[in-house]
Design a protein that fits this description.
The protein is α/β, with parallel strands linked by helices. The protein contains 14 helices and 17 strands. Strands 3, 4, 5, 6, 11, 12, 13, 14 and 15 form a nine-stranded mixed sheet that branches. Strands 1, 2, 7, 8, 9, 10, 16 and 17 form an eight-stranded mixed sheet that branches.
Length: about 425
């Protein structure tokens, strides 16, 4: 099976890649090396883990199959959304009240880590505050009110309900009946965040090898070994953070998650006046449907609009056609707007919609399966992985003990089963039930 990075390396033709901050040339791994900790994957999970560990004094190297932030970390909607895909209510029903309380205690941690990194290392990534959840029906409003009340019960009071008029103060659209604002959410340029975290890691002596896809990994050895086409890295501790792009290199992880693609496009610059008219408070927005729209303004006043899913991770033939109809429903004013960029990227979906963390052998750790909520979740999990490697397994053990559920039908049928499920939930959204 070919590695998903085979024959690739350049960033996708996204707005983020076109507006990325300058980066240094980084070598591929050649020859045989040894290190304290080897991290596979230079996305948010890997960068967060590596940066936490090098701050603790470990010698750390990162192996990246393409470029820093090449995968979901450099292609996503750029929204800092608190929480996991699975709700606190679902987690409580599934795993018990103690686990729900534990998760509630860390749902805002990822956003806090992001802001700490930006401040400490002066990362230029256009950070802005506030994210809004948009409701299209009264049922959506009820769901949001229940969420606000539930989170408040755990001591989280950053969320306020929005009436239809209050919603229009944030989004000049007639589509919504109201919504909810999370004042502790926000948005930023996701690729520049990843590039800034990589630069911070390197400033502390860390080494990143790019264009070095892992071809095999001995995860059971006391001293794990990973190999690339031209080199190897032996380490005391191995951390696997390939997420949706790890491919089949580690068979024990392949069945745990499914790659799912989502799409984003960027309009031409709209200008200060039109951008302020459409989104006066410059927050980011996502609606609460199963297959949702999400959007925000970039620093240069483009509307970045995303949505849609393709199970299995394939790219749709025409991203603009897939998304433009939804954009027109939100903002009919932009019906004839030019689209300058359109791209797709994969996230890793777990069947339970809860991220997974664990060990393979005594000294190989992994984290993946953020299910579309990876911007914040990956930063939190990176910190928890670093705590475990440093000897504090308290938080790691909670997640590692959660049971994971394989997709029905195994690898062969996980895509069609998931598509059927998404059709059902999309129908419920349309019917308002």
């Amino acid at each position: 099976m070919a590695h998903p990075y085979a024959g690739t390396g350049a960033h996708t033709t996204s707005y983020y890649a076109a507006s990325a901050n300058p980066v240094p040339d980084r070598p591929a791994l050649t020859g045989d090396h040894e290190i304290d900790v080897c991290v596979v994957g230079a996305g948010y999970s890997g960068l967060s883990t590596a940066l936490h560990l090098i701050e603790k004094g470990y010698k750390v190297a990162i192996l990246e199959g393409a470029r820093v932030g090449w995968g979901a970390s450099g292609r996503n909607g750029g929204q800092i959304v608190n929480g996991l895909n699975a709700s606190l209510q679902t987690i409580g029903k599934r795993y018990g009240g103690e686990t729900a309380t534990f998760v509630a205690g860390l749902v805002q941690e990822g956003g806090q880590i992001i802001r700490e990194r930006i401040k400490t290392y002066d990362i230029q990534c256009d950070l802005k505050e506030g994210n809004v959840f948009a409701a299209l029906t009264s049922k959506h409003m009820q769901e949001l009110e229940e969420r606000r009340a539930l989170w408040a019960g755990y001591g989280i009071h950053n969320q306020d309900m929005l009436s239809a008029d209050e919603m229009r103060a944030h989004v000049k659209s007639d589509l919504y009946v109201g919504g909810m604002i999370d004042h502790s959410g926000g948005h930023m340029h996701p690729l520049n965040l990843a590039l800034g975290e990589a630069a911070a890691f390197e400033s502390l002596g860390g080494v990143i090898y790019e264009m070095s896809p892992v071809t095999s990994a001995d995860t059971e050895a006391a001293r794990p070994v990973v190999r690339t086409a031209e080199g190897s890295m032996t380490c005391k501790t191995l951390v696997l953070c390939g997420n949706a792009y790890l491919g089949h290199v580690v068979p024990a992880l392949t069945a745990r998650v499914m790659p799912v693609s989502t799409q984003v496009m960027a309009t031409k610059p709209l200008g200060e006046a039109l951008a302020a008219e459409l989104m006066p408070t410059d927050v980011c927005v996502e609606d609460v449907r199963y297959i949702l729209d999400y959007y925000r303004m970039s620093a240069d006043k483009r509307l970045l609009f995303g949505g849609g899913t393709v199970y299995g991770g394939a790219d749709p033939k025409d991203i603009k056609a897939k998304l433009k109809g939804n954009l027109d429903k939100v903002f009919p004013q932009l019906k004839n707007v030019e689209i300058d960029y359109a791209w797709s990227g994969n996230f890793a979906l777990s069947f339970s919609r809860v991220p997974q963390m664990g060990r393979l052998g005594a000294n190989t750790y992994f984290a993946h399966g953020y299910s579309g909520h990876g911007v914040t979740g990956s930063h939190t999990f990176g910190r928890i992985l670093s705590e475990a490697i440093h000897g504090d397994l308290t938080r790691f053990d909670v997640f590692a003990a959660l049971p994971w559920i394989p997709f029905p039908g195994g690898r062969a049928l996980r895509v069609p089963y998931s598509v059927i499920g998404s059709w059902w939930y999309a129908l419920r959204d349309k019917l308002g039930v």
